[in-house]
Amino acid sequence: MPQIPLGDIERHFWLTRSVARSMGVSFTEAMVQGKVTENDYAEVVTRCRAADCSEKCQHWLATQSCSAQVAPEFCVNADLLNRLR
Question: Where does the record place the DUF6455 domain (predicted)?
Answer without folding.
Answer: 6-85
